[in-house]
Design brief:
Helix content is about 60%, strand content about 0%. It is built from 13 helices and no strands. Helix 1 packs parallel to helix 8 and helix 4 packs across helix 5. The longest helix is centred in the first third of the chain and has 36 residues. The chain is globular. It starts with a helix and ends in an 11-residue tail after the last helix.
């Protein structure tokens, strides 16, 4: 298993300290900065996600390895075949292919976790902070098992599991640096292709114009292609449309699952119960929307 994130943790801590110090010595009234209890909750959620993720990784590896070895057509190993060919350009093409395939998988994963409520119950954790700083990046779910189906196709087309995990780690490390108010817009060519702090601030906004926008991981091109892009305009209001107002990590981690269960249990029939599970967050039987 390749988990580059573990090696990046010291750098994460350093950047949190530097960013917090920058707000202390050079405050900006238009930026929210840090709040001790909020940051402590985010750090706790991050630590918990690493513990749960370590255990889950073994099941993840087993499933992806089985798909790669026994189901992938003709047991086709893209990396091995490129290496045997001893063609540097072919190897570069394989690496580029993985980069784009992983980033598209992340876009689909991210969009699905905003539009399907049972998946949103896991992802809501990351959006539950009303602050936006490097600790927000670490506020991660304790139920990571919902991600597997979105990366399974990469194993099926011949990318080995170790390579998939490595690229996932690279993507998440990149995304850590998106969670800051201290960086304004970058040069236009960068903003056009890459996901940037400006684009990701939009994604964390609860403003109506910002809801369900900018799902990209490293690239923003998928949002431009699929009609989910929104540039940063009005001041971003961070958090949820209805904020949870708690710093209790257990409630942050599982509160939406409890709310979903209450809705399913109170549904009028199996059809409505299923709709609560698979429809977007906010759907209810009164408005049917």
């Amino acid at each position: 298993m390749v988990n580059a994130i573990m090696y990046a943790i010291p750098a994460f801590v350093l950047f949190v300290v530097v960013e917090a110090a920058s707000f202390h010595f050079a405050p900006d009234e238009d930026e929210r900065g840090y709040e001790l209890r909020d940051s402590a909750t985010s750090l706790t959620m991050g630590a918990g996600s690493q513990v749960v993720g370590f255990v889950w990784k073994f099941a993840n590896v087993a499933i992806l390895a089985a798909a790669f070895v026994y189901i992938a057509p003709f047991n086709f190993d893209i990396v091995t075949n490129a290496t045997i060919a001893n063609d540097p350009w072919l190897i570069v093409a394989v690496m580029a292919g993985l980069f784009f395939a992983d980033d598209l998988a992340y876009y689909l994963f991210h969009r699905g976790h905003h539009r399907i409520r049972v998946l949103w119950a896991s992802h809501i954790v990351h959006h539950s902070s009303q602050y936006y700083n490097f600790t927000t990046a670490l506020r991660q779910s304790w139920t990571p098992m919902t991600s597997l189906p979105f990366w399974l196709p990469l194993a099926l087309i011949g990318f080995p599991p170790w390579m998939i995990f490595l690229q996932q780690s690279i993507s998440l490390i990149y995304q850590f640096f998106l969670h800051t108010e201290r960086v304004d817009r970058l040069p236009r060519p960068v903003e056009w292709v890459m996901n940037t702090p400006s684009h990701h601030r939009v994604h964390h906004g609860s403003n109506d114009v910002y809801l369900d926008r900018n799902y990209g991981g490293i690239l923003i091109i998928w949002d431009r292609m699929f009609g989910t892009f929104e540039p940063e305009g009005e001041r971003v209001r961070y958090g949820l449309t209805t904020n949870i107002d708690t710093y209790n990590p257990v409630r942050v981690a599982f509160g939406e699952y409890a709310a979903l269960w209450r809705d399913v249990r109170g549904a009028r029939g199996i059809r409505d119960a299923a709709r609560y599970i698979v429809n977007p967050p906010g759907w209810n039987t009164e408005t049917r929307s």
